[in-house]
Amino acid sequence: MGSVQSVCVCGAGTMGSGIAQVAAMAGFATIQFDVNEDMLAKSRSSIEKNLAIMVEKGRISSEQRQQALGLIHFTAKTENCIADLIIEAIIENLDAKTALFQKLVPINSSKTIFATNTSSISVSAIAKGCGEEKRMAGMHFFNPAPLMKLVEVIHTAQTDDTVTETLVAVAKQMGKTPVICSDSPGFIVNRVARHYYLEAMELVEKYGADIATTDAVMEAAGFKMGPFKLMDLIGMDINYSVSNIVWEALGKPERLKPSTMQRQKVEAGELGRKTGKGFYKY
Ligand SMILES: NC(=O)c1ccc[n+]([C@@H]2O[C@H](COP(=O)([O-])OP(=O)(O)OC[C@H]3O[C@@H](n4cnc5c(N)ncnc54)[C@H](O)[C@@H]3O)[C@@H](O)[C@H]2O)c1
């Protein structure tokens, strides 16, 4: 695979916006795509604001801010999604992801690499669905993408070794710490972290624990964020999908059964920070 000069980030939500910021700051010509114009406008203002804060704190110069902003092109048109590397960060749904890649594969070059930021969906299933298995891998960033160093690079049984090597190099150029994972449900972090959320919700649902106290206790024990604050940051729709996908993929073990609390929050539209209300109000 050739070297990556341009990156197209599909999805301008919680993750896509942060990934586009990281890509532009690393010097890649960056396309930020979303079907929703409002999300594109939100992403643009959030990136502008984040970079302005970095200038204020002396982390980057105002020239670097201008340079990064100048590298990002915002678009709502699929036909503009042409790049050396596509990073997909749309909703956590296999059919939606497959349908998007099915549109992107034929309009891109035969050298383009396709990466998904999925938290839990089988990367092989996405690759199979869009008919591009060798050039497809996972590139799983963590929230907030500009701050979190870890990137899980998911190498499926079909991924070409050079594709994985390129993604590792791109992640390093972005200042990240890539770790190669196999394509198993939840990969590493989301598999282990399922219990952090599910056990906390069970304590509240079944044993009457208090949400704020549970968060405070976990933070006092050394975790950076309590489980409820973290779920609000992630977005309950995403977290609930991940719970369901990991549970089903592992044969529905009782220990990983999604919580009714998660479902109720999604049904109520209380998704966390992105909707202004989750377990807490914002
Ligand atoms: N939220 C997290 O903490 C987190 C962390 C790591 C990975 N992820 C993964 O990243 C992906 C995105 O999650 P998010 O939290 O950013 O979601 P989000 O709900 O904040 O944003 C999703 C965006 O995708 C857009 N979208 C939906 N369908 C689209 C399509 N067909 N084409 C283009 N854009 C489309 C929506 O308009 C929205 O702006 C998911 O796969 C999720 O599992 C999320």
* CATH homologous superfamily (4th level) name of the largest domain: NAD(P)-binding Rossmann-like Domain
Q: In this structure, how is the largest beta sheet organized?
A: 8 strands, mixed
- The overall number of domains is 2
Helical segment count = 11
Determine the structural class based on helices, strands and strand pairing.
alpha/beta
The protein's oligomeric status is: single chain
The CATH class of the largest domain is Alpha Beta
Overall, the morphology is globular
| Integer-rounded radius of gyration | 19 Å
Strand arrangement within the widest β-sheet reads 3-2-1-4-5-6-7-8
Q: Estimate the mean pLDDT confidence.
A: 97
Order of helices and strands: EHEHHEEHEHEEHEHHHHH
Please state the second-level CATH architecture of the largest domain: 3-Layer(aba) Sandwich
Give a brief rundown of this model:
The chain is α/β, with parallel strands linked by helices.
Task: Describe the structure in your own words.
The radius of gyration is 19 Å and the shape is globular. The chain has 282 residues and is of the alpha/beta class. It folds into two domains: 6-182, 3-Layer(aba) Sandwich (Rossmann fold); 191-274, N-(1-d-carboxylethyl)-l-norvaline Dehydrogenase, domain 2, CATH 1.10.1040. Helix 4 packs across helix 5 (123-130). The longest helix is centred in the first third of the chain and has 20 residues, at 37-56. The chain is built from eleven helices and eight strands. It has an eight-stranded mixed β-sheet, sandwiched between helices. It starts with 5 loop residues before the first strand and ends in a 15-residue tail after the last helix. The chain binds nicotinamide-adenine-dinucleotide (NAD). Nicotinamide-adenine-dinucleotide (NAD) is lined by residues 10-16, 33-36, 39, 89-92, 96, 100, 117-119, 140-143, 234-235, 238, 274.
